[in-house]
Amino acid sequence: MKKRNLLFGILMIVTSISTYAQQAAKSKTDTIPLKYGAHRTGNRTDADMERWRSYGLGQFIHWGVYAIPGGHWESKSYNGAAEWIRSWSGPSAPANWRTTYDNLYKQFNPTDFDANKWAKQAKAMGAKYVIFTTKHHDGFSLWPSKYTDYTIANTPYKKDIVKQVVDAYDAQGIDVYLYFSIIDWNHKGYRSAIPKTEADSIAYEDFKQFTRNQLIELLKNYPKAKGLWFDGTWDAAWVKQSKFADDLEKELRALHPGLIIGSRFRADENGKRHFDSNGKMMGDYEQGWERKLPSSIEVLNGRDWDCVMTIPPNQWGYNSDWKSSYIKTANDLTDMLLHAVSMNGNLVVNFGPDGKGNIRSEEANTAAKLGEWTKLNGDAIYGVRYSGLPKPDYGYYTKKENKLYLTVINKPANNVLRLTIPNNYKQKPTKAFLLNDKNQLQITTVDMGMSGDSNVYFDIQLPANLNTTSPFVIAIELNETKTNGKSFGDAKT
Fold first, then answer.
1. Residue 144 to residue 141: CA distance in whole angstroms
2. CA distance 49 to 258
3. Most distant CA pair in the chain, distance
4. Are residues 62 and 133 in contact, defined by beta-carbon separation less than 8 angstroms?
5. 305, 245, 298: which is closest to 271 by C-alpha?
6. Residue 398: helix, strand or coil by DSSP?
7. How far apart are CA 227 and CA 349, in angstroms?
8. How is residue 360 annotated by DSSP?
9. 3-class DSSP state for residue 204?
10. For 428, phi and psi rounded to 5 degrees?
């Protein structure tokens, strides 16, 4: 009897294990059938996307009619991001504000605008790509679109701003990406909510075709553009347009082979944005890192991504008053830049020119200081990848082939950088030098004498006269090793 019960117990355990294994295998293969979800698994591997990965640093420019009020009107201040000022309402808003705003384009005459000057400033900063606002939520088009009268052609300025930007940045070797907002407060057919009446539905269909026409127009007018950067895609009405948006994306990609589009353009048929109902990213890179950075490499799951960052806390377009805000310094942005590239991302720094076309002096000075740093330390930024090493307390690692770069944000008080390298890391440091002057530094292996330690330690001695208030980079040459690097100090038992 005991033997029978034992056999029965074993049979039940084996059956349970088998059932669990089958369920686990099924859960890995079961997916929700989707027509309009992701059309690719994993990252793109083509040359255009490889170029995107190598950028490291980019520039964002928010510019339009909203630069005229600059966050203020009639001695009143708009309590929000300046580029949203048309949505100003309530007792704090000037009388008939939206009518006033919708006529501001008649004053738009940026006589100081010089696209070549902007492009040269971006190049000096170290930017490898720019994202430029062709049309923000207010619907004003900075190119002479033939599908609306609300364009630069009907301003005192008249000239095509988008063309000037594309040509100037291209001449400096900086790739151009065109920002386009799906939201359009000027178009009569635009709806934020899902249309409920037949009249609303007809109007919204007209708006959809208008949106399609403008996007095709942009790609045909400016074929040098490398990609489209979409905004305002969270409206319930647009989220419902899964088929239309998916068809439109395919059409745009066919029109412009190699086109790069982020993850926020469209939703699947279940309303999921960025990632479809099966958790797969829609688009070519993760576009959700706005004014924030990932806490670890693990949360990215190997995806391509970039972070768009303002210099004040949350002003993208021009706001004339920065007095109440913390303004990020060049060192702040350097820290964020290394944070991004150390995790296979890019950092895109925003600028908001004023109504005359000038990049404000605070932004220009910050860009110049950042550029001084990137010019000396570009090897640690451009074309680098995640090192595969734990983040050091001193700053950030980046890696390119057999070179490891340690950008030191926090200089140690004892002038010694201790590198913690896991035993199973395939490469070990052999030489080290300061990137900016190429002076070789002493590097020694350290036995910490800790039983069962899974790391090897290397000390890099910094020069005694290294006095700096800015981050600096140590370049470390690596060699391949077949050993675990832990042959010294082993106990013999």
1. 7
2. 8
3. 99
4. yes
5. 245
6. strand
7. 18
8. P
9. helix
10. -130, 145
What ranges make up the beta strands (E) of 269-344?
286-290, 305-309
Q: Is 8 helix (H, G, I), strand (E, B) or coil?
A: helix
Name the DSSP letter for residue 151: B
Six token digits for residue 156: 């005192």
Q: Give, for 417, the enclosing helix (H) or strand (E).
A: strand 416-422
Q: Which residue has the tokens 């005459």?
A: 109
Q: Closest Cα partner for 353 from 134, 75, 70, 77?
A: 70
Return the residue matching tokens 């988008």: 162
Compute the half-sphere exposure of residue 486: CA atoms within 13 Å on the CB side of its CA: 19
Strands (E), 162-243: 175-181, 227-231
* 259, amino acid identity: L
**Please, are residues 357 and 346 in contact by the beta-carbon 8 Å criterion?**
no
| C-alpha distances in Å from residue 365, one per residue of 59, 235, 351, 400 | 15, 37, 12, 30
List the beta strands (DSSP E) in 172-326. Answer: 175-181, 227-231, 260-261, 286-290, 305-309
Beta bridge partners of 433: 440, 475
- Residues 331, 173: Cα–Cα separation, whole Å: 25
| Residue whose token pair is 């950030």 | 396
Instruction: State the Cα angle at 73 between 69 and 75, rounded to 5°.
Output: 135
287 closest CA partner among 269, 298, 300: 300
Q: How far is CA 126 from CA 58, 114, 178, 356, 458, in A?
A: 8, 19, 19, 25, 32
Q: Which pairing describes strands 129-135 and 395-400: parallel, antiparallel, or unpaired?
A: unpaired
Checking DSSP bridges between strand 395-400 and strand 403-408, what pairing results, if any? antiparallel
The one-digit pLDDT tens for each residue of the chain (493 residues) are: 444 444 444 444 444 444 444 444 434 446 899 999 999 999 999 999 999 999 999 999 999 999 999 999 999 999 999 999 999 999 999 999 999 999 999 999 999 999 999 999 999 999 999 999 999 999 999 999 999 999 999 999 999 999 999 999 999 999 999 999 999 999 999 999 999 999 999 999 999 999 999 999 999 999 999 999 999 999 999 999 999 999 999 999 999 999 999 999 999 999 999 999 999 999 999 999 999 999 999 999 999 999 999 999 999 999 999 988 899 999 999 999 999 999 999 999 999 999 999 999 999 999 999 999 999 999 999 999 999 999 999 999 999 999 999 999 999 999 999 999 999 999 999 999 999 989 899 999 998 878 789 999 999 999 999 988 899 999 999 998 655 444 433 333 3
Nearest to 131 by CA among 167, 166, 80, 81: 166
The strand pairing partners of 347, in sequence order, are 57, 307
pTM over 0.70: yes
Secondary structure of residue 434 in the 3-state scheme: strand
